[in-house]
Sequence to fold (495 residues):
Amino acid sequence: LLVATARAATHQQPLLAPSAEPPVSSNLIFASFTSLLKQWPNTFYSNGHSVVAGVVPAGTLLYHARKTNDLPPKTEWLAFDAEMSLGIMSGRGGFTRLLTYAASRPLKILYVDGESAALSTQGWLDSQSVLIYGNVTDDESGRGGCGGGEYERARQLCELGDEWGFDGVVRMNTAFELMYCDFSKGLSIISSVNVTDPFTAGAGFGWPAPPDAPYPDPTALQRFSLSSVIFADRSFERSGEPRVLLDYDSFVSFYDPRVSSLAEIRKRERSETSREKTRLLGISDDDGAAVRERVRAEVERMNRKGWAVGDKGGFAATGQIIIDQWASRLGELEYILRAWNGSSVGSENATTTAVRARSALYTPISSYIDFTHYSNTSASWLAWSESRCKTAHTKHVHPPTEGSALVESSIEGVSARLCKTVFRLFAESVLLKFPISVGNSVEGDAAELEERAKEALPRWGAEVRDLQKWLGWTSWVRCEEVCQPGAVCSIPMWP
Fold:
């Protein structure tokens, strides 16, 4: 009944009305968009909020491990990496066969971001539930239970695929996988290999293993069980899963402020819920139906244009350019300001730290500043330059779809916050009349300038940290130590 009701609503709900101003949730939309198909940010922020159409190119190799000799039924899962298939199946012990397929044509897919293949009640499956039911329940391990609901979920998503016109759904846990709807279409079998070996043939205990299971010594079994995690670690630094091509113009986001029920929840729980815990629980029936209609309309658009992928170098590249331009420089600025703790650091006083901070502030905005009317007694000469900074990436762009318009507005919102904060701090550093560079003489009373610097540095540091927190970029979340051979640096992943 829930499915029938939700699907009926999709033909009654209009598209979400467009928004003229950059959304309040610009940071969330931007972070989601620039993280699509990337392992590290989607592991860190595991509750996905995006749905995007795309293709798996013809010729792509895909893998499926089985415990029997028969071929997969109509609907099953494919891994993009053999390690993932072997890691899942070899740990269960006994006979294992690895099937290798190649896409015989471009495979039409929907991609749902976050850890959307991880089975949990934490919200990882929310976006799939909205696509199927139009809403989310609190017990969201999949209606049917954790693990037990996967085939039912696949069946219902594939019913949408039959109705709307797509072949499968790309999801992620320790690596990316493809929930594929019909193995008899679009796939050619390349090989079928008995990969059972004497180390794993009798060592597995099934899933879940009993608590007192006598786990074997380090063998191929354990190596295969960890191989998908090791591969995921290698994938953290990738710019994105290269075997999936997204049509970025089809981007649909639950962070869209027009999804007002979720916007209200985020506003209400701002002090209680961190972004990694934000989920789709509480979405209204109307909002759920409107988002589903939006996804359906994007799939219909893709069908009309033959699933040719758009925006190969547009907003996707722009988002990465902005992160490249700002992330490391904000990180350096925060480090300089954090090092100042209210007293001299070694031989460096507050004035010297402020001079170094001013240089770090200047670097990311240097290409926007026109010094024609420079003054160290007024900041008004910087207004035009700040305006250029805010609109540098969007002023001459005309987005072709509703999804790309949403992305454009998020770029404007993020750029506005970045430029406003950094220009304001840079202007203050100019007005305080610090020396031109470290070691230069001070203009005026050195002691008074030192006190001004001592007052400014903690405040600047707080503003920069607030900006970083608002942006939520995972560029600043990393393992500081280099791992030894055989070790991996990872954060908690599936299951």
About this structure: The chain has two domains: 2-304, 315-476. Strands lie at 50-56, 61-66, 76-79, 97-103, 107-112, 168-172, 176-180, 187-194, 245-246, 252-253. Residues 315-476 form one domain. Residues 1-20, 204-210, 213-221 have pLDDT under 50 and may be disordered.
